[in-house]
Give the backbone structure.
Amino acid sequence: MSEPYLNAAGMTGGYGTGADILHDCTLTVNKGEIVVIVGPNGAGKSTAMKAVFGMLNIHTGSVTLDGQDITSMSPQARVSIGMGFVPQTQNVFTSMTVEENLEMGAFIRHDDFRETMEQVYELFPILRDKRNQSAGELSGGQRQQVAVGRALMTKPKLLMLDEPTAGVSPIVMDELFDRIIEVARTGISILMVEQNARQALEIADKGYVLVQGRNRFTDTGQALLADPEVRKSFLGG
Ligand SMILES: Nc1ncnc2c1ncn2[C@@H]1O[C@H](COP(=O)(O)OP(=O)(O)O)[C@@H](O)[C@H]1O
Ligand SMILES: [Mg+2]
């Protein structure tokens, strides 16, 4: 067995000099997989994503991407080697237009990014229609599309999404999940935190249940959905 594409292993750490939030937390993603993290509020899901992206100092554990040890690499350097991250909050520039947001996403690129922008518009046609509107005027679902599109502008190999469907209607949620599946089919690996745990696990190759900064359950999405204990404690029965 070769090493997983992303191997965030045994991460322990917290914010600044505060207490540890993550305790021996491990997350792995293989090429082209959709991996979903679920768990109660405050479980450390966003913190784990930040740790993988290099926004948190972990004092134990390591992160490798495609076999390369990136544990001490800055977030910006991680972007340049293929990580894209859509944070849970403040993930668009509301005063800029949709197109300016996408251009900002391409900040690390020195080549022609118009083709990538075209791909983003094909994935999210509404963004093409609204390209000259400020992102602040868009609906929640459209704003999330801008945020995902912006991350795609760097041509990531691993796309990390923290609650991409937060605050959107069930129909918009389904649509966003369909687009995420489409992105995964192009070979991009997905690591995603989701509050809509049931629906997210339906599309997950692998799921993690995190509780108090620790791995509690890890299995295929289907197996977690079928597990009575997971259902009872984390999926509302
Ligand atoms: N910037 C921060 N500074 C200090 N503590 C934080 C910060 N962000 C989150 N925390 C704490 O870390 C814990 C986990 O939070 P978080 O990772 O946001 O959980 P989740 O995303 O699973 O809801 C919580 O106790 C929260 O209060
Ligand atoms: Mg969170």
